[in-house]
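Q: What would this chain look like folded?
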Amino acid sequence: MRPSAQDAHRAVRVELADIVRAHAPALLASTRLAGVQYRALRAIERCPTAALGGQISRCDRCGETHYVYHSCRNRHCPKCQTLAKERWLAARRAELLPVAYFHLVFTLPHELNPLAQGNPRLIYELLFASASATLLEFGRNPRWAGGEIAATLVLHTWGQTLTQHLHVHALVASGALGADGQWVAPRRGFLFPVKALSKVFRGKFLAALSRAFAQDRLRVKGSTAALAEPSARRGLLATLRAKPWVVYAKHTLCGPEQVLDYLGRYVQRVAISNERLLELDEGSVRFAWRDRAQGNRRKTMRLAADQFLERFLLHVLPSGFMRIRHYGLLANRHKRNRLAQARAALNTCAPAPVPLESVAAFCQRVLEIDIHRCPACRIGTLHLIGTLAPQFLYRARPP
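A: My prediction, written as structure tokens:
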């Protein structure tokens, strides 16, 4: 039986690197990119190729020579996140408490998207600060917990179709460590009331945004040039204040492994994975997405290649920006002591330290691949015989 056209397309695997190699030159010739966006494209384009250097190995049985090229390790590359995610989760395993966990999502209105495009670092910082301050304030309120919570926040900037959707995911332990050293569990079967959270979150963010306007910390040009006028700024703040903001609380998670599995879906993610890419032709990209409004229904979308890349670049983070942050008991300054106090209150011991997993052990466990085994004869062992130096050949940036 002859394969269908759809099966034939699926047989040819499309990767983000293919799209970048084919269509980034035209985008670079017509669009001025930020340095971090340009570096992300160059890293994805070269990962893993001879341009990044690598290692040369030879099989001690069949004599076959193999070349393994280095990865770019850029945090926006879909091929470089699996090992980073596994190592991050291993570190978090030692910080989990034996309680249920809640997953909350703090979302910014889409009216702020143009402002975020010109001021990503500032808007993302305000989002983190407002969401974390809201959670900590509710945690310290005796009406709800009356103590210090343990929270991890992860920034996401995208929706399923790569449009801007600015939000942070918060994973929060159920309860708080009281000032008397006792663990205070939620008394009402839920963590905090989401309607009250939404109002406080909105108030804190808009107060911070108003201060940023007053201090002229926001760049306003292009689509946001009108905000140079005080009346336009007041109008934007009034519009944002008048509409409801969304804080969504998801179901409770029980057990450390379930929490880690759930958390693994949100950390070290990029805007789109290679698995969602379906087809690349001369001028367009087709990819899969989930329509949450229709019961998580799977759909496909086709975009012009330059539009696809422009949407992807919206989600390249500012240089050095930390997209995963910890608060309360997990804040770095006092984390060891406070976690020890929380475990004592919960009558549990700290888990045994887990040594850092090697790349070879990771590939064997997760990918079921022995990287030392010869892929040609599948019997011999590969031995390093040389290295390849990286080729620092950068395409000139457009003026």
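The chain is about 35% helix and 20% strand.
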